[in-house]
Design brief:
Blueprint: H1 6-16, H2 19-29, H3 39-45, H4 50-63, H5 96-108, H6 114-129, H7 139-151, H8 155-165, H9 168-171, H10 188-191, H11 205-217, H12 234-254
Amino acid sequence: MNTPDFNAAAGFVAASARVLDRRRFERLFEHGPAAALALRIMNETGAWDEDLVRGACDWLLAVAPAEGGAAFVEATLTGWPHAPWWVPEDGHPASLVATGMIAGTLHARGVRHPWLDGATEVMWNRIGKLGAVQGVAGGYEMFGVLGFLQYVPDRGRAREVFGRVGPLILEQKLVALDPEAPGEVHGVLDFAPEPDSLARALFDDATVQAHLDHLARGQQDDGGWTFNWPAWSPAAERDWRGFLTVDALRVLRVNGRLAYPD
């Protein structure tokens, strides 16, 4: 079994990661204080702040598309440095990626808010059309679908819907089953990072373990992990590597594949 060098990873995070990812690392692995930013990070690190979350939901409601939910990119990004693929969509539609991932995080924490009510309806409606009226445009959209289905309170409906849309991951070849597949591909752990992930049911244990082996082997000589999509600037590459290094350690730990000092 491959075992990453935890101390080398800690050194990479300390030397190269964003302040936010250094704080994620401290919270997840060094019992650091619960002071972090963004809904996903607050949920991940157990640093949930009800006042901050309420303000974030109020903002989401104020800028929501007409149908509800959240856009992939707001028009205010125009004119500022950003990755080439971060482009506001014509008509300001709701995004499966943004709406699903945000709504899933809020549902995981039992949040009640008008924005979440609308976003939940958007997701049920959009997911109901997948595979029939429309296909899944790509793996990123499925991340939003899975993030929503993992935590939405109606568990019976979530399991029923996943039984229909989950297999699209395989049918539409959104996942690379070979962990050594080159290029900008999505692996098994992108869809099913944790043992209780809904999408784990799609993959046999040998495939999951092969991808965990590959993740463990992915540690670079400088202690960090990297990514398989284009790096659009040196700063973005450094920032993403810090984030993914902490994320790799988190995924390896939750799957019983990481030994680190307590």
